[in-house]
Automatic annotation (TrEMBL):
Upper lineage: Bacteria, Pseudomonadati, Pseudomonadota, Alphaproteobacteria, Rhodospirillales
Sequence segments annotated as region (Disordered): 1-35
CDD domains: TRX_Fd_family (cd02980)
Name of the protein: Ferredoxin
Top-level division of the source organism's lineage: Bacteria
Compositional bias ranges of the Basic residues kind: 21-30
Length: 168
């Protein structure tokens, strides 16, 4: 008859002794990796698709032209003359189904392109000032944007905006 020798291991060194290993969550939580940089792209595409599929209702054919005449604007005087010229051009192009109105707005932060006219349709055409910030810019793409314009360009701007508004 053989005796089994029980070998005693010091506490904690046995494979099942000591504290069990706990699974620690990494820096990025459950999945263990950083969110992908490309994750925002599909979202942007989805917004663009939604925009393309949304058909404007007749009441959406309101267009607002914003012209910057900020305080201390380098193009302030031109901006004011441009506003007057745009209003005249709108009056000279009566268009059934499209309402264009012209608004002065503050600085658009593109002074080197000034004077600037930005045309918006839809919700942004009802706003008192143009959308600011990246998300607002994504959700409210301008119908068109014109830089370094003079009062002499007002007629061409109105015609271009009307053409694009009718097409969309």
């Amino acid at each position: 008859m053989r005796h089994h020798h029980h070998h005693h291991c010091p506490e904690g060194s046995a494979p099942h002794g000591g504290s069990p290993l706990r699974h620690r969550r990494g820096r990025f939580g459950r999945w263990g990796h950083a969110p992908q940089d490309g994750a925002i792209e599909p979202a942007i595409e989805a917004v663009a698709t939604l925009e393309a599929e949304a058909t404007p209702s007749p009441d959406d054919l309101a267009v607002r032209l914003f012209t910057c005449v900020g305080k201390g604007c380098a193009h302030g005087a031109e901006g004011k003359a441009l506003l007057a010229a745009l209003n005249e051009a709108v009056a000279a192009h009566p268009t059934p189904g499209v309402r264009i109105d012209v608004r002065a707005c503050g600085c658009l932060d593109v002074c080197e392109q000034g004077p600037v006219v930005v045309a918006y349709q839809g919700n942004a055409a009802k706003a008192a000032r143009p959308p600011k910030g990246a998300l607002a810019g994504l959700l409210n793409r301008p119908v068109d944007r014109f830089g370094q314009v003079s009062p002499a360009d007002a007629g061409r701007i109105v015609e271009t905006v009307l053409h694009k508004t009718r097409r969309s």
